[in-house]
Amino acid sequence: xxxxxxxxxxxxxxxxxxxxxxxxxxxxxxxxxxxxxxxxxxxxxxxxxxxxxxxxxxxxxxxxxxxxxxxxxxxxxxxxxxxxxxxxxxxxxxxxxxxxxxxxxxxxxxxxxxxxxxxxxxxxxxxxxxxxxxxxxxxxxxxxxxxxxxxxxxxxxxxxxxxxxxxxxxxxxxxxxxxxxxxxxxxxxxxxxxxxxxxxxxxxxx
Length: 206
Hints:
Strand content: 15-25%
Order of helices and strands: EHEHEHEHEHEHEEHH
Low-confidence stretches: none
Largest sheet: 8 strands, parallel, barrel
Shape: globular
Distance between the termini: 18 Å
Radius of gyration: 16 Å
Number of strands: 8
């Protein structure tokens, strides 16, 4: 499964880029999701990552379509409150467009609108959403069965919860603070990978 690491908006430009440069070789995608930073700060993050060897193909710009276009980043992720998928697709058919969804109906609608993949959550309890009940494994499994595009699970995903996703036809997982806020992001990522491998090995023996 793919591993997506998403910035959590809590690090400085320097701290964030340092952590992402430590792990970029080991992940499939790095999402720049910095809602409280200025455009110039987000541009600086992207420039620093690119100048230090992170491929454009690994970067995903969350919401800031302008930043993605100015840096010619091929991947954008649109939150539910962001631009309509259809308009972004018409503007640049080459973009890979992801969309955050929170229900089966929304997932089906976004697939029809032209999204390339869906990010669904939160699956498990998470400190970032303490007052919201998790949507659970059953809901994400239903979405995976109902759409043909890839589905990425997010929310409370740590090595101990990954086994609960066994048997779900996910294309990947997305993590934020577990990796990006860790004292050792590389070790945190290795623990996630080990848990994913163990789940895969278990499924292959069934």
